[in-house]
Amino acid sequence: MKNDRIVGVSVLRKEGRDKVTGQAQYVDDMTLPGMLYGATVRSQIPRGKIKNIAFGSGIAWDEFVIVSAKDIPGKNRIALMANDQPCLAHGAVNHPEEPILLLAHADRHLLPKAVAAVSMEYDPLPGVFTIEESESHSEIIWGTDNTFKTYLIEKGDVDGVWEKADYIVEGEYATGAQEQLYIENNGIIAAFDPQQGITVWGSLQCPYYIHKALMALCNLTEDKVRVVQAETGGAFGGKEEYPSMIAAHAALLAIKSGRPVKIVYDRMEDMAATTKRHPSRTRHRTAVSRDGKILGGEIEFTIDGGAYTTLSPVVLSRGAIHAGGAYYWPSVRISAKAVATNVPPHGAFRGFGAPQSLFALERHMDRIAQVVGLSAAEVRRRNFLRPGQATTTEQIVRDPIDLDKLLNRALELSDYRAKRELFAKENRAGTSRKGMGIAAFLHGAGFTGSGERNLSSVVGVEGCADGKVQVLVSSTEFGQGTKTVLCQIAAETLDLPYEKVEIVQADTNEVPNSGPTVASRTVMVVGKLVQSAALGIRQTLAGSGLLDGSYSAAEFGDACRKQVAAHGRFRSWARYEAPNDVFWDDARYRGEAYAAFAWAVYVAEVTVDLTTYRVSVDDFVALQEVGRVLHPVLARGQIAGGVAQAIGYTLYEKVVWQNGRMQNCQMTNYIMPTSADLPPIRVFFEELGNIHGAFGAKGIGELPMDGPAPAIVNAMEGALKLRFNSIPLLPEDILEALLSDSGRQSEPQPAGGER
Fold first, then answer.
1. Whether 618 and 646 share a structural domain
2. How far apart, in whole angstroms, are the C-alpha atoms of residue 153 and residue 67?
3. 189 and 45 in one domain?
4. Nearest one of 435, 438, 387, 388 to 408, comparing CA atoms
5. How far apart are the first and last CA of the chain?
6. What is the tens place of the pLDDT at every residue in 664-722?
7. At residue 474, what are phi and psi to the nearest 5 degrees?
8. Cβ density class 431-457: b for 16+ within 10 Å, e for less
9. pTM tops 0.85, yes or no
10. CB-based contact 280:175 (threshold 8 Å)
């Protein structure tokens, strides 16, 4: 090896210079000749029949391009999973932000007045706005029972555990919606040419999702649709599926007008109309022995999917599989369902269902500890999964993970025991209360079950005549470091300087479908394919006699020039093939749910002010095992950013709904934590490696979203001796709980159960 080590080093970000110097071009920086600006006319009611559409006076309507459902050349559906969501409502609306008409004009400043001048006459129908209302079937708004999807995971003999239990512990837990709140709002530019087809440039995560959606909507062949990712200012899952909708709208306006069309949402429209984290309700009923061991249990996990299916089935799947957490369940029955309501569809958000079900589990573990009379740490220790044991889906743990060791280190780093003793004394007086809380959890990397096998992702690496190397993937950069880390992997594999490797812009005309940039899969799954493709380049040059085992960058460049001169473009491709030990049974919903899990123990220290009822997180220890850390600065940034986002989920970010519409859809009344509201977030890693990931890496991006909420709420309960079973918890929620005192901890009950 003639170059310095690259993997494991915090090299400069590939896109960093352009971003900090202002050279990076986002969608709203782009202008095409003759471009129009588009806007959306949306429903004003949550559910009903459209009787009439009227265009008000005072608007020069002949200057506007107007698109309705009847202008759609293909199927009026956003192709994704169930294909049930219309691109434009036709005859009926099912949520209060549903698109009905599209307008375009050369002067973007005329659009708001024009949108306001369009009036709709409806026959309103009763709306359904909560999980409980959907389950009551008082109104059927989707299918025959308002249910998008169900899953059942069964292991062991659940029915036989109850008579063996010394305690039966029950609990119900709920989580609210959360807005992704990326820095850059959703935006797309579309251009249409009758011969070339449709081209869109956008702020997006998944180019091939949009490619699929536009083919069906516009009735175009694969070669007539091109999707290009522009620089993207954050996503967090919010730009996974929704850009297919805005791209569809821009494309329809471009087709009808014959001119390029740009649609960029303002913050209010982006928050009100796009997808959010699914609200959830989880019910636990757990059989526990006198010594604190879980014997078995039933878990009911339900999410609110909103008006259409979107990605609810896969969010539900991950949430259900993670519902048992990092613990050994000899017997378990997990029943999961996603239900329909008349709110804008919910969708992907960092964690993808796991933060919801793990919040419930980690709160429930503290409840079990109270009932049995053990410490929160000890009850976890007695139930941790160990190598050789099976998860809830009967996947054998092959990682040499030692969760006892991870827990001990987290407790030591946070000074957990000493602080608990100190706070117990200090909390007897004064106007504030302090507490410590723990959460232990896992997160699967990659698509669930047979997802990766079905995706069959492809990546390419090209050796160029100028001696540089290009990585060809559809995996996108939106601030998390995709470009940097994939270039690190290729450079290390090829024994080249990092500066010699570039990544090709995500453009469906140029790069293969390497799958969506979601599910903590980029480094582990796509990175492994990049490693394989790069190895193919090296082996080809060696096999042709152009390169020895040891070489310089100049010698590599000379070999590439000769290869290209002799054979033309020099590319190596790698396609995902499922490992032999990874198999998932879709029919029985069991098996190897993920090729690898990341593991973590988080500890939160909080103060509750009894004058303002504000909760401050004073210190946060995040300890995780994530395989090998390929870029320490980016890895720490991912963890710290995830913890910060989860603090918002727990204590600040409350979506206020009224008749299916978000009422606080601006940043003056939807509150997120600022840097001044955040504690020191102390990030630590254990590195055990992973045979399925590039250079031993696992997924990392979603993991830190899972643990902070229960750790913080567990700490709050320790401080106030008051039970909280839902988030978010704003000061008014804490005051209300203290006044009602309904959640006050009770004494542990003996055999016979905690009901």
1. yes
2. 46
3. yes
4. 438
5. 64
6. 999 999 999 999 999 999 999 999 999 999 999 999 999 999 999 999 999 999 999 99
7. -95, 0
8. eebbbbbbbbbbbbbbbbbbbbeebeb
9. yes
10. yes
